[in-house]
Amino acid sequence: MYLIVGLGNPGKQYDMTRHNIGFHTIDYIAEKYGARMTKLKFKAVYGECIVAGEKVYLVKPQTYMNLSGDSVAEMAQFYKIPPENIIIINDDISLDTGRIRIRKKGSAGGHNGLKSIILRLNSDEFPRVKMGVGAPKHDDYDLADFVLGRFTKEEIPVMEEAIKKAEGAVSEIIKNGTESAMNKYNAK
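Predicted structure:
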């Protein structure tokens, strides 16, 4: 059993922002695999489906980004899912727009959602699918404003392709392991 967690912020005002690319990826996976995202528990909206022959819970924490770990830890504890079976999908400003990178484990890299998850799970040993959302063009641009901003018209089709790649990476992690997904997707 797996938790596939897309990070983001609840609320219409955050819809289609860079910080919510994890939520949008979960929506895409849910649609592709027929999961109904209608359950409300564990401070999350979630649904279940089968991906690569495994039962998965698709999760969108409703705690706001900085407290994502509260939701993830509650679900992991309830369903007895070990960290290595928790796949996190998050935005990453250090990657070019549309680029994805798979990591088997590691630090939060300054991402508050990952920090919260690491703290609450007491582990950084969970795979993550990092989705590039670009970085501000100017050093004096406020980072919070940037990640809470929307994609440009030119970036939207690039991110739609990235979402498809991220779904493929999640499926590959479940089917053949994180190393295989890293080999397949990190080179692109």
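Summary: The radius of gyration is 15 Å.
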